[in-house]
Design goal:
The protein has 132 residues and is mainly beta. It has 2 helices and 11 strands.
Length: 132
């Protein structure tokens, strides 16, 4: 059974416990952020190479030695987060982000991370005012 056309499907699903969640976002400054779970599953890399598939509209991330010229350093952000400044990558491929996006199903294959733009939701923290 299908819903009427004016309904939008919520893609994010229910809340998953922090111990199991794979959390990856990209913001308007082209910074990729992810949690300790993603960092651990990728093998705790010092640096990564970034790839982009235009046909799949997907970012690929692969751990590499920080000695490579094309390596993006992975930097700690707070106690439980990690970040990559992907601005040169996004500029090169014409990826334009207007607000923070959360990747709904970040896919980890071995140590490779795949992030599909077809599976994102807005991650804004705007609070609505209650009706008076």
């Amino acid at each position: 059974m299908e819903m009427d056309r004016d309904f939008e499907k919520f893609l994010a699903g229910p809340t998953v416990s922090a111990a199991k969640r794979l959390h990856v976002t990209i913001n308007r400054h082209n910074v990729l952020s992810f949690n300790n779970n993603v960092y651990r599953l990728m093998g705790k890399p010092e640096a990564v190479c970034l790839y982009y598939s235009r046909t799949r509209d997907t970012i690929g991330m692969l751990p590499v030695s920080p000695r490579f010229n094309e390596a993006f350093p992975v930097k700690q952000h707070g106690r439980t987060g990690w970040r990559i400044n992907a601005a040169p990558f996004c500029r090169h491929f014409g990826i334009r982000i207007d607000s923070t996006l959360k990747f709904v199903d970040p896919e980890i294959q071995g140590v490779k991370l795949l992030l599909k733009f077809s599976h994102v939701v807005g991650a804004a923290t705007v609070r609505r005012r209650s009706p008076k």
